[in-house]
Amino acid sequence: MPEGDTVLQAAKRLHTALAGQVLIRSDLRVPRFATADLTGRTVLEVISRGKHLMTRIEGDLTLHSHLRMDGSWKIYAPGERWRGGPAFQIRAILANESHAAVGYRLPVLELLRTSEEEKAVGHLGPDLLGPDWDPDKALSNLRKDPDRAVGEAVLDQRNLAGIGNVFKSELCFLLGITPWLPVGELDPDTAEHLPLLSKKLLEFNRDRPNRVTTGRAGPGERLYVYGRASRPCLRCRTRIRVAEQGDGSRERPTYWCPTCQPGPHPTGQAGPTRQARPTR
């Protein structure tokens, strides 16, 4: 599941393969940009912005893509077999003399002026892995809607950019709160710690092939709660629970430990009401 850490890794791979080289093949397989031709232009850089990828190309052009749930960019050497999926799933091809970058199942793909990138990403909050990171701004954004559940608020990229469903569940566990706790009910210390811990989690995983939040490398022990429904909590041995959480337009599976994360829970899955001490 692409989140800020994996999108940054994708940007690094694309930058290594494409930056500083002239495109000899360009194929954008979306109706709006199907006739666009980038061949002969040099790729300047590839960066990430939250969960967005920006491939900047000479001539004030940026190819903006977003992976969402299923999208991916694959890098291939000349003559190497493309294995990212069937050909009908390819949405973009950017190739130079030494590499081909192939975008599969990209739900967002658009060509825009580099000078107008803010039209695509200007709505985003501070990027947890970017130069614009500002924990005070992120916390201020979260506090604008005190009745909103923490789990929904941290997924809203307008508040802070980079957290997805995995880090949402792990962050709430480490803070000792349920994802259903309203932002306005966070105690001051936990609220101040939330953006700092968010950045720490993504920074720790920015170069790792497999996410780790527990400090353990064993199978099934890298994450505290995400994907561990019905398995014993690594701290207290209570069974991890899972329920859907969302704002009505999109529901996502959310994992938590009812003992280590006291507070509001989904109907019929009530746990303790006292807010736990967050992990520092």
TrEMBL record:
The protein's Enzyme Commission number: 4.2.99.18
Residues annotated as domain Formamidopyrimidine-DNA glycosylase catalytic: 2-89
* Coiled-coil residue windows: none
Compositionally biased tracts (Polar residues): 270-280
- Keywords for this entry? DNA damage, DNA repair, DNA-binding, Glycosidase, Hydrolase, Lyase, Metal-binding, Multifunctional enzyme, Zinc, Zinc-finger
Taxonomic superkingdom: Bacteria
Instruction: Supply the CDD domains for this chain.
Output: AcNei2_N
What InterPro entries does the annotation carry? FPG_cat, FPG_N, H2TH_FPG, Nei2_N, Ribosomal_uS13-like_H2TH, Znf_DNA_glyclase/AP_lyase
Family to which the UniProt record says this protein belongs: Belongs to the FPG family.
Name of the protein described by the UniProt record: DNA-(apurinic or apyrimidinic site) lyase
Organism encoding this protein: Streptomyces kunmingensis
The uppermost taxa in this organism's lineage are: Bacteria, Bacillati, Actinomycetota, Actinomycetes, Kitasatosporales
